[in-house]
Amino acid sequence: MNANIEEFSRMKNDQLGSFLRERGIPHHDRKKKDRVTLAKAASNMGIHRRPKPEEIKADVETDKENLLTMENGIIKLPCPNKLTAGWRQKLSNLPSISSKEVIDYIDKRLDHFSVDVDAERTKALKDGENLLISGHVRNVEMHTISPNIKYCFVKAIVNPAMSRTQEPYRVWAVLHKEIPSIQAGYCACTAG
Fold first, then answer.
1. For the whole prediction, is pTM greater than 0.70?
2. Per-domain boundaries in the chain
3. What pLDDT digit, counting tens, does each position of 177-186 carry?
């Protein structure tokens, strides 16, 4: 919304309040004139409306569906969180994944962002290794999904590194059974 000052001036105080609240801008103790100024500044700065919780949840579910769609939409894997039976702590059938496959996956994920890939890759590898070594990763399990499907799931519970009170994250990855590779990964943390 790139409204001019007159459009904001014509809005009622509660409409201005809604406009500012949707953008996370404090305004409760402000008079209408100040709310108009804040709204105009937010508009000029391109501050967009924050998504509502239900919109965020819908986006997360769509992202998960996309992660679970393999081979250009031919295979749609079930959500690992909904699979209750078939999980095994015995990981002897786990596909052989080396640091090369982890690096390839990280690079593929970072390719969509304008970041220093080398620095971000190094940080991601170090953070992951630190979580593993320090015992933050637990309950690692594998699910073969089906003998007819060449993918499997690995899931774990990860305790946040910086908080003892925060709920642990539930993470999962899709691995290719035949070609050592990570096809997708998901974490309920902010970074995903």
1. no
2. 5-45, 56-187
3. 999 999 999 8
